[in-house]
Design brief:
The chain has 138 residues and is mainly β. It has a single domain, classed as OB fold (Dihydrolipoamide Acetyltransferase, E2P). Helices cover 6% and strands 36% of the residues. It contains 1 helix and 7 strands. It has a 5-stranded mixed β-barrel. It has a two-stranded antiparallel ribbon with strand order 1-2. It is globular, with a radius of gyration of 16 Å.
């Protein structure tokens, strides 16, 4: 864990603070609508399924599958140069929502659509932990 983290950081506001607080505890938290029962991601004030504002935060399994991905072979700026090649992926969580993230793997060529993944937490600073994913097969 580093005291300084050079890469872009998320803006943590009151609407996303529960998600980031749980990530620091190595828990994946998702908003769920009490009216229709659907989970969603990214956090927002209204359910994107039924538009209710009766929402709660619930622990997610952290399991999912690769919905889509790309392999970045050129860095998205100097702070990412040491990471190439790296995988940027859309994960379909078992609870339903999709989450944009990174897949942490030593073999970027092994990533496939439909591959099962499990959440992994990257403590990048004392205040910030990023949820990323690993292939279940690794």
């Amino acid at each position: 864990m580093s005291e300084t983290y050079e890469k872009p950081q998320p803006v943590i506001d009151p609407g996303t603070k529960p998600f980031w607080d749980a990530a620091r505890e190595h828990r994946l938290l998702l908003p769920r609508c009490r009216s229709c029962g659907e989970h969603h991601f990214y956090p927002r004030e209204l359910c994107p399924h039924c538009y209710s504002d009766d929402l709660e935060w619930v622990d997610a399994s952290g399991d999912g599958e690769v919905y889509s991905y790309t392999i970045a072979r050129k860095p998205a700026g100097p702070t990412f140069a040491a990471d190439v090649p790296y995988v940027i992926a859309m994960i379909k969580l078992d609870e339903g929502p999709r989450m944009l993230t990174n897949i942490i793997t030593s073999d970027v060529e092994s990533v496939r659509i439909g591959a099962r993944v499990k959440v992994s937490f990257d403590d990048v600073t004392p205040e910030l932990t990023l949820p990323k994913f690993k292939l279940e097969s690794e």
